[in-house]
Design brief:
about 725 residues; alpha+beta; five-stranded mixed β-sheet; hydrolase; guanosine-3',5'-bis(diphosphate) 3'-diphosphatase; RelA/SpoT_AH_RIS; RelA/Spo_fam
Length: about 725
């Protein structure tokens, strides 16, 4: 396509085609808040976009330019600035035409070009799947969004118009787009406080994804509407009259739940449509915050409130800036009534959210507060995306972050911390700071010691206890709920595992080189570079990590380093022993050296190790049946032995036959406890009236400790037989 030059200001075209009618409608809205020079820039962008998309049509048959102009019109109703409107008109130019970002920059300036690029999908992504491509696109959008919030506002308007015009699309594509809308875009609109856009996206997404359910609920709503009108009028008049009696100038309006909300409530609470539709919902709009609390008192005097169902989002706003008082009452005829009480200003902000930054210039403080909340959320997401392993992991973390139900807890200094429902001490610690999360060992709730997995509830005062030696535990991933905690734990474990593998790989390689009378630190750097090239590794640490994880055999690498020609194939002499000195195991190496669960080796046992590719070394008891199988594979096992300094507690499994009588297990447990050991697990293998056969997993220090425990147990009259399990 030849370069399109639209430097001069073209006139507004006469209304001949649908796209020109749309442009006239757009300009009519823009005149209410932009000056003529800015509107001229928008018209210039229109002509540029129309020329770029010339010959392109939507599935409906209309010219493609109709879509971006419709998106721009949605943004104009939010009073988006003229650069945002221009970006909306041009948002598909880079993706769908030969026009480049540089050309846009020359024509309309860098700001518009950056906005368009932020909304544009990534092209030519080398992805393994469609899901990964979509995830990478969303990740890119969030990075651009962190630079300029207008990116996501344009994208939401774009998605809204796409959802409104999906009629001619194939069913499978329609469902895929609807699913993505419900999982990503509607929650983002909610997170940014744009409730009006969110409700539209949810309704359109639900209709496209579940057309039959939408039709059934929609028909049921229409059918029930007539029966409800009389009750709604009665309740509304009663509330209005009570407000007047109290000299409160408040407007009362009945509100109808959207169909997607009704379905979600039916699904989450396992109730029928009639149960949902028996709830009557009203909003009371006041002028001042004080009036909201007075109105609350009025309705609580009029109808009885349901205990525990009052929420004050005015004093404690939601993360997206939403403010309102929520209460549930028992109305006439015993029907439940949902009431939301807010000021007119709160209502405008709740519908517009981040768009209030452009829409309500008079409410500067409020809109800046919402902007600050959005920016804070984006900073958290940037931190999450830095530690996310890939785009799919980032999307998983994002979804966790987009579906919160808040609880409010306090720091010891009285600061309020907001967390999703179900959050634990670990979530709280990471929200305070990632270093606090990494070092936490326990906590005090209301001055009482509690474990880290304790779930937090409203009003708790939480004090995290840390230690310099502490580090994140992989088990934490089973109960943390916040995206920040999950990503920080994964990032730490990934880096820790990597460093641990490097250290183990170095030990293994040094051991093999020593058997060849070579010191690793004395190997010439040129020789190391040659070996790395042959093995296709970028650095020595990468090679050592590969060895530590069991992906590459250390003695083969050592042989290659010792050979005159590093490119030659590695040859082993038939009588050569490649494992002259055993690797010393302390039992505290961590993730890349693990003890086999089949035979549970403990210090003092004869042991053997073998490489498990990608996971490191697995240590077995020498008599383990599995180790005998592994030993036949000469290239995957190595001699290991326990260090005399091995310390800590190690699990050991015993099989015990004892008389089946009252208190027998209690006697066994107390005897084991008296020997400075704990029972970690008990499994009953078989049991009859006389004998019980059980498997006990004990925590012991070493082989001598276990032998002492077994001797003590054998002296009990109720014990018939004890053997240690070695697979």
């Amino acid at each position: 396509m030849p370069e399109i030059a639209v430097k001069t200001v073209p006139a507004l075209p006469a209304i001949e085609h649908p796209e020109e009618k749309l442009l006239h409608q757009l300009c009519k809205i823009l005149r209410s808040y932009l000056d003529q020079e800015q509107i001229n820039d928008v018209i210039r962008a229109y002509h540029f976009g129309a020329a770029a998309h010339s010959g392109q049509f939507r599935r409906s048959g209309e010219a493609y330019i109709c879509h971006p102009v419709s998106v721009a019109t949605t943004l104009a109703t939010m009073h988006m600035d003229h650069h945002g409107i221009m970006a909306a008109i041009l948002h598909d130019v880079i993706e769908d035409t030969p026009i480049s970002k540089e050309q846009l920059g020359e024509q309309f300036g860098l700001e518009v070009a950056e906005l368009v690029d932020g909304v544009t999908k990534l092209s030519k992504i080398d992805s393994r799947s469609r899901a990964e491509a979509q995830a990478e696109n969303v990740r890119k959008m969030f990075l651009a969004m962190a630079q300029d919030l207008r990116v996501i506002v344009v994208k939401l308007a774009d998605r809204l118009h796409n959802m409104q015009t999906m009629g001619n699309m194939p069913v499978d594509k329609k469902r895929r787009i609807a699913k993505e809308t419900l999982e990503i875009y509607a929650p983002i609109a909610n997170r940014l406080g744009m409730n009006d856009v969110r409700h539209q996206l949810e309704s359109l997404g639900f209709k496209a994804l579940y057309p039959n359910r939408f039709t059934a609920i929609n028909n049921a709503v229409k059918k029930s509407r007539g029966n409800r009108k009389e009750i709604i009028d009665t309740i509304q008049n009663a509330i209005q009259n009570r407000l007047k009696e109290s000299d409160l100038d408040g407007a009362v309006a009945g509100r109808e739940k959207n169909i997607a909300s009704i379905y979600q409530k039916m699904l989450s609470k396992h109730i029928s449509f009639t149960d949902v539709f028996d709830v009557y919902a009203f909003r009371i709009y006041c002028h001042q915050v004080d009036d909201c609390y007075r109105a609350l008192g009025c309705v609580h005097n009029l109808y009885k409130p349901v205990p525990g169902r009052f929420k004050d989002y005015i004093a404690l706003p939601k993360a997206n800036g939403y403010q309102s008082l929520h209460t549930i009452l028992i109305g006439p005829y015993g029907v439940p009534i949902e009431i939301q009480i807010r000021t007119h200003e709160m209502h405008r902000l709740s519908e517009s959210g981040i768009a209030a930054h452009w829409l309500y210039k008079s409410d500067k403080d409020k809109s800046e507060t919402i902007q600050a909340r959005a920016n804070e959320w984006l900073r958290d997401l940037l931190e999450i995306q830095k530690s996310a392993g890939d785009s799919l992991e980032f999307i998983d973390n994002l979804k966790v972050d987009l579906f919160p139900q808040e609880v409010f807890v306090f720091t010891p200094k009285g600061k309020i911390i907001k967390l999703p429902r179900g959050a634990t001490i670990v979530d709280f610690a990471y929200l305070v700071h990632s270093d606090v999360g990494n070092a936490c060992i326990s906590a005090r709730i209301d001055k009482k010691l509690v474990p880290l997995q304790t779930k937090l509830e409203n009003g708790m005062t939480v004090e995290v206890i840390t230690a310099t030696w502490a580090r994140p535990n992989p088990l934490w991933l089973n109960y943390v709920t916040t995206a920040k905690a999950r990503s920080c734990i994964r990032a730490y474990l990934k880096n820790f595992n990597q460093q641990e593998a490097v250290n183990l790989g170095r030990r293994l390689l040094e051991k093999e080189l020593q058997s060849l009378n070579i010191q690793l630190e004395n190997v010439d750097n040129t020789r190391i570079i040659q070996v790395l090239q042959v093995l296709k590794k970028h650095s020595m640490n990468e090679l050592l990590e590969d060895i530590g994880l069991g992906n590459r055999m250390p003695f083969l690498v050592a042989k290659r380093i010792s050979q005159t020609d590093v490119n030659a194939a590695v040859k082993l002499d038939d009588n050569e022993s490649t494992h002259k000195t055993p690797l010393v195991i302390k039992g505290t190496e961590g993730i890349v050296v693990s003890l086999a669960k089949c035979c549970r080796p403990i210090p003092g046992d004869s042991i053997i190790g073998f490489f498990n590719p990608g996971k490191g070394i697995v240590v077995h008891h020498h008599e383990c049946r599995n180790s005998n199988e592994v030993r036949k594979k000469q290239t995957t096992w190595l001699d290991v032995e326990w260090s005399p300094e091995a310390s800590g507690e190690f699990p050991a499994e015993i099989r015990i036959e004892l008389l089946n009588q009252r208190g027998s297990l209690a006697t066994i447990a107390s005897t084991i406890s008296s020997m400075d050991s704990n029972i970690e697990n008990i499994t009953v293998v078989s049991q009859d009236d006389r004998v019980s056969v059980d498997l006990l997993t004990l925590a012991v220090k070493d082989r001598v400790h276990l032998a002492t425990i077994i001797r003590k147990l054998k002296k009990l009259s109720l014990v018939l037989k004890i053997t240690r399990i070695k697979a």
